[in-house]
Amino acid sequence: MTFFSAFVRPILIAATAGASFYLAFLGLLTIPALQDHAIYLHGITLTWFKDVNVPEQWGFLRNQVTPFQLKTPDGETLHAWHVLPLETYRENQNALRDEPTGLCRNITSRIGFQLLKDDPTAQLVIYLHGAAGTLGSGWRPQSYRALSASAQNVHILAIDYRGFGSSTGWPSESGLLTDALTLADFALKTAGIPPERVVLFAQSLGTAVSISLAHHLALQSPPTLFAGMVLVAPFANVELLTQTYSIAGTVPLLAPVARWPKALAWFNTFILCKWPSKDKLAELIRHTDSLRPSRQTTKYDITIIHAEDDYDIPWVHSDVVFWHAVNATQDPEANLAFEDLELLKDKQKTDLGAGGWEVEWKSHGGIVREQIVKHGLHDRIMSYPVVSLAVARAFHRKDST
């Protein structure tokens, strides 16, 4: 037996088989339905054997969470949760305990809804979760508890997008925007919460939905501007995401192809969902900066948070999103190159030691922050105090102005 047949040939066969498998995988990604599964991961519920209409399974108090449904304008049914603040629950726990549990067919008849609608001090987080799972998956319940346990009287409204969990339909870029608009409409019109008492919180895929929602409403006449927006582990757009993203942190999508720019550009032409977050956020800032001054001097309060050890979406995405946001506050002639802004950030950022660092960029229209923490991975960070603080800061800044 020669050296070639004993050692080299098996290696070549394995390499050829691996390359063939990867090429087949790329071919499958050009099929729209499979592409949607790769981007949204909506077929993975991560709450097997649990009923999302029984929130007590995740440690919530009896009727602290009310599961209900929303109808979208295009006929889909979205599953939703309303999470009560802990102190509000304590003050009304006897009445809340006496109500029936499970899926509520008429949310407006519930005590929890009235506590949100009738309290002029109530503050609301519209919560837009990331890809995969349901609103009860992973670290999301811990995140709700962290926010609702604050002293800010913070209610939470969360949905499963179309195609996720028990919500009907199939996810798409326009469809998820419709879902977010449906939730915002419920909050602003049905519950009657003014936008200055609403903060958008989003993570991963949800950051793209949140930016799209804020962008859409800000461009209406009259514009709707929320108290703030907290974006955890955002991505710049799908094209950049495909170069860096690994499914479940292990299976790279297009990292091997990214070594050949022309091949990557060609493959990206097959991607249907673009989610251009960096561009929409920049346009949102430019538009709101152009609005005529009013008593509301602060038009936006945006915090971008990312963990250095996030192996799903690298934190360079937050650098890119922040860069576009900063340039949106300036005249085009004064735009900063990415490298120049990084040098400026090194001089201006606040070093928090083992807690990471943060930098703020203020303009006449508002403030944009980038906070990079050293630990938190992709999902666990949602339950960390840095996120709760960012939400509280957005509410407090709006109260101050």
Automatic annotation (TrEMBL):
Pfam families: Abhydrolase_6. Residues 125-286 form the AB hydrolase-1 domain. Gene3D superfamilies: alpha/beta hydrolase. The chain crosses the membrane at residues 12-34. Keywords: Membrane, Transmembrane, Transmembrane helix. This is AB hydrolase-1 domain-containing protein. It comes from Cladophialophora chaetospira.
